[in-house]
Amino acid sequence: MKVLLQRVSQASVQVAGDCVGEIGAGLMVLVGIEHHDDEALVARMAERLAGYRVFADAQGKMNLDVREAGGAMLVVSQFTLAADTRKGRRPSFSKAASPEQGRRLYEAFLADLRALGISVATGIFAADMQVSLINDGPVTFMLEL
After folding, report:
1. Percent helix, strand and coil across the chain, each to the nearest 5
2. Which end of the chain is less packed: N or C, by CB atoms within 10 Å?
3. Rounded Cα gap, residues 41 and 60, in angstroms
4. Could you list the pLDDT tens digit for every one of the 145 residues in the chain?
5. Is 78 a catalytic residue?
6. Is the pTM of this model over 0.90?
7. What phi-psi label fits residue 137: left (phi over 0), alpha (psi between -120 and 50 degrees) or beta?
């Protein structure tokens, strides 16, 4: 499982011209699920992401997680994060989860985040989405399990 997170001052996702998810300050989270991932790994990633300290405290240090900072998350499934790009000029998606497994684990990930007290907005699984964001910092991290 790979998660690309970006600290944002705002983010939104549109499908067919309609806004389906948006947040103010918080984290834009792109999620890539691989075929070897399972519910236990997804739960561990949700815990890790929820507690990841990327927001500034009163001293300007990255010591606050998204909950402590009063932020939200916009979580979008992005199977292209599971691409193998080590060789050639075309990505291989052999590591990506099947659509059925991907949807099931993506929905479990959303439920885990919400159970941790995080306000979560989403895109639509497997839809053609247009994502807009203002990266704050910029601050971007790749988390992998």
Report:
1. 25, 40, 35
2. C
3. 32
4. 999 999 999 999 999 999 999 999 999 999 999 999 999 999 999 999 999 999 999 999 999 999 999 999 999 999 999 999 999 999 999 999 999 999 999 999 999 999 999 999 999 999 999 999 999 999 999 999 9
5. yes
6. yes
7. left
Domain locations in the chain as residue ranges: 2-139
Class level of CATH domain 2-139: alpha beta
Per-residue model confidence (pLDDT) at position 122: 98
| Active site (annotated) includes residue 80 | yes
State how far the Cα of 75 lies from the Cα of 45, in Å rounded to an integer: 13
% of the chain surpassing 90 pLDDT: 100
Q: Residues 80, 85, 130, 140: which is the catalytic one? A: 80
Length of the chain, in residues:
145
- Which H helix or E strand runs over 41? helix 39-51
Catalytic residue among 10, 14, 55, 78: 78
The active-site residue out of 6, 79, 109, 122 is 79
The tokens 């199977």 sit on which residue?
Answer: 79
